[in-house]
Amino acid sequence: MEAFTQHTGLAVPLDRANVDTDAIIPKQFLKSIKRSGFGPNLFDEWRYLDHGEPGMDNSKRPVNPDFVLNFPRYKGASVLLARENFGCGSSREHAPWALEDYGIKAVIAPSFADIFFNNCFKNGILPIILDHDTVDLLFKETEANEGYKLDINLEQQTITRPNGEVINFDVEPDRKHSLLNGLDDIGITLQQEAAITAYEEERKKRAPWLFNN
Amino acid sequence: MAGKTLYDKLWDDHLVAQNDDGSALIYIDRQLLHEVTSPQAFEGLKLAGRKPRRIDANLATPDHNVPTTDRTKGIEDPISRIQVQTLDDNCDEYGVTEFKMDDIRQGIVHVIGPEQGYTLPGITMVCGDSHTATHGAFGAMAFGVGTSEVEHVLATQCLRQKKMKNMLIKVDGKLGVGVTAKDIVLAVIGEIGTAGGNGHAMEFAGSAIEDLSMEGRMTICNMAIEAGARIGLVAVDDKTVEYVKGRPFAPKGEHWDMAVKAWRELKSDSDAQFDKVVELKAEDIIPQVTWGTSPEMVKPVTGTIPNPANESNAVKKEGIERALKYMDLKADMPITQIPVDKVFIGSCTNSRIEDLREAAAVAKGRKVAASVKLAMVVPGSGLVKQQAEAEGLDKIFIEAGFQWREPGCSMCLAMNADRLEPGEHCASTSNRNFEGRQGQGGRTHLVSPGMAAAAAVYGHFTDVRELELQPITGGAH
C-alpha cells in the first residue's frame, strides 16, 4: 500500500447525501478479477450518458456535462468533498479501488459508512470526518473559488485552507500509523503469531466442533 | 458492574489480543467466499508467498454471477465465466470446500451458510459481502468485510478491529396478519435512517422478534447493514438450537451437547447497558413499500409519497426531489397507485422456504397481471428450490404466470443477465433500492414476499392484508 503523509490537491464537491457503493462503482465492473483499472468507471452512471460495460473504450463515451467531476474546473481533483453517510451499501472494495485509480487521495465528509471507511485505509485513501458546518464551509468555498486546493497533513492531522486557516481532524492512532508508513496489515498481524496460536489451542478445547470439518 | 450485551460476550470470547494503540485482534472462526470479492484476495496471498492458515474455516460458492436460467451450457458472459472459473480454480488449488454451480447445495452464501449448519451460534463469521450480518440471527458475530480483509482472514484467521457500540432495537407485541419480518426491518430503517446504526452492533429483541422463525430473524439481521450496522444480532433460544440440529456441518454427539450448553449463554444480560435503544410496537407496523432511492425512503402501503415542500432540512429536501425525479413519482401520490413492471422474489433477504411459501399463498389461484412484463421467483439455494418443488410451490408460481428459476443473487444486484430496463418499476424482495441497483435506470421498490406477489397479481402495490390467502402446506424445515 502506498503511504499517505501529506497531500495538496484540488477539491471537488459531490453535493449529495448517502452516496452508495453501487453509485461509486456499478456492479457490472465488479466482474474483473483485478484490483486496478476501475478509475474510468468511477461514478459511471452519473459520469457518462450511455450505459457502461466492462471492456468499452471509455474515452469515446459521451460524458454527462452536468456531473461535477466532469466540470473542466475540477479536472485533476484529488480531494473529494462529500455529504453524510458516504460509501453506504455493499462491502465492495472496488469502491476505494475506483477512487484511488481515479486519483482521489482523501475524502472529507460529515460521516461515512463503516465498511467503506475501513476499506479506504487499506488502500492508501484518507477518509476525514469533520463536523457538518465545517464540511458545509468547504463546500461553499470550493464552489466559490476555482482552483481551490486543500493541503492535508496526516502527521499533524491538519487541513490547511487556501487562506492559511487550519482545520484539525481526528484519526485513530493505529490507522494513522499504518497509513503514514504504508504498512501491510497482514504483516503486522503475523507478528502476533504466538498469540493467535495460543488462542486457537484454547478455542479448540472450548469449541472443538469448529475444528472438525 | 453492568451486565454484558450479546455483542460484548461474542467480542470478549474472540479477543486474541488487545493492542496498545486501541485496536484489538479478533479471531474469525469461519469465512464464506464467493466469486466477486475473493479473486484479488487469493492473488494477494500468492503474490506475498503466503498460505491460508485454516482451509477448514472457509466455505465457498458462486452466487453473484451465476445464471438463473438453464445452466447446462455454462455461463454465457465471458467475464462472468472467468470470475466463477477463478473461484473454482482457487478452491481446487487450496482445497477449500466449494459448492460449484452444478451442485444442489449451491446458492446464495447467506442462504447456504445457515442451511448447511456452517453458520453456528457463538461464532465469528465474515464474508466479502455486507449482508453477512444475516448470520447474526443465530447469535453469531457476523459482518461484511472488503477484499483486503478477506485476504487477511485467509492468511491469519484474525482481523484487527475496534469494538463497536451497542444498540438495541426492541419490538414488542404481535404482528398483524400479512405483516412480516421484512416490514419490521423496513420500518426500523424508516425510523432511524440508513446511517442510524453506523458504528453500532444492532441487537433485535422483544416479543415480536422472539415470535419470528429463524428465516424471519435472518431477514431482519440481513438488513441491519441497510440501517448502517455491520452487525445484526438475535439471542439464541430453542428455535435457534432446533434449526441447527442435524444439519451437515452442525456438531454431533457429545460435541452437540457441549455446544448447546455454551450456546444457551448467548443472550444479553438483563442488566446489560446499550448505548442506544429504539422501541417499536409490532401492532403499529403496516406492510412497507420503499418509494425512493434509499431504504430509508419507505412508507406504509396505506401511505402517500412524501412532499419535499414539507421537509425543512435542505440536504434531505434535495434528496427527496432527486429521488422523485429518478423514480418518476409525484409527491402526495398514494403508494397503491405506483405501477409495477417487473417483480423479483429472491435475494439473501427473502429467498428461503418460508419466504416462498408466503409469496405462494398470495399467488395460489391468481394470475400475474397482464401489465406485468416479468415476475420471477429465484430460490436462495438448490436445496430451497428442491424443497419448494417437493411442496408444489413451483407449480403454484408457474400456474400464476411467474418464472421459476435456478438459485443465485440474480436481480438483487443484476450482475448476471437478470436486470431491469431503464424506467421500469420493480416490486422486489431484495434489500437495496439505490439508483441503478437492479439495472441502469431501474426503479426498485423494496417489499416483503407477500407484498411482491400481490403487486404481481394487481400490477400495482396492494395491501396484502386485504387479500384472502390460500393455505400453503409445508412443515417446519
UniProtKB/TrEMBL annotation, chain A:
Keywords: Amino-acid biosynthesis, Branched-chain amino acid biosynthesis, Leucine biosynthesis, Lyase
Record InterPro entries: 3-IsopropMal_deHydase_ssu, Aconitase/3IPM_dehydase_swvl, AconitaseA/IPMdHydase_ssu_swvl, IPMI_Swivel, LeuD
Pathway: Amino-acid biosynthesis; L-leucine biosynthesis; L-leucine from 3-methyl-2-oxobutanoate: step 2/4
GO MF term (any one): 3-isopropylmalate dehydratase activity
Xref: SUPFAM superfamilies: LeuD/IlvD-like
EC number: 4.2.1.33
Residues covered by the Aconitase A/isopropylmalate dehydratase small subunit swivel domain: 1-131
Gene3D superfamilies named among the record's database cross-references: Aconitase, domain 4
Reactions performed catalytically: (2R,3S)-3-isopropylmalate = (2S)-2-isopropylmalate
Domain of life, source organism: Bacteria
Family note: Belongs to the LeuD family. LeuD type 1 subfamily.
Oligomer and partners: Heterodimer of LeuC and LeuD.
Function: Catalyzes the isomerization between 2-isopropylmalate and 3-isopropylmalate, via the formation of 2-isopropylmaleate.
Name this protein carries in UniProt: 3-isopropylmalate dehydratase small subunit
The organism of origin for this protein: Kangiella aquimarina
UniProt lineage: Bacteria, Pseudomonadati, Pseudomonadota, Gammaproteobacteria, Kangiellales
Automatic annotation (TrEMBL), chain B:
UniProt cross-references to Gene3D superfamilies, sorted A to Z: Aconitase, domain 3
Cofactor: how and how many bound: Binds 1 [4Fe-4S] cluster per subunit.
The entry's keywords: 4Fe-4S, Amino-acid biosynthesis, Branched-chain amino acid biosynthesis, Iron, Iron-sulfur, Leucine biosynthesis, Lyase, Metal-binding
Residues that bind [4Fe-4S] cluster: C348, C409, C412
Keyword Metal-binding: yes
Record domain Aconitase/3-isopropylmalate dehydratase large subunit alpha/beta/alpha: where: 8-459
Cofactor: [4Fe-4S] cluster
Protein EC: 4.2.1.33
Catalytic activity field: (2R,3S)-3-isopropylmalate = (2S)-2-isopropylmalate
GO molecular function: 3-isopropylmalate dehydratase activity
Pathway: Amino-acid biosynthesis; L-leucine biosynthesis; L-leucine from 3-methyl-2-oxobutanoate: step 2/4
Quaternary structure, from the entry: Heterodimer of LeuC and LeuD.
PANTHER family noted in UniProt: 3-ISOPROPYLMALATE DEHYDRATASE, HOMOACONITASE, MITOCHONDRIAL-RELATED
Family per record: Belongs to the aconitase/IPM isomerase family. LeuC type 1 subfamily.
Function: Catalyzes the isomerization between 2-isopropylmalate and 3-isopropylmalate, via the formation of 2-isopropylmaleate.
Name by which UniProt lists this protein: 3-isopropylmalate dehydratase large subunit
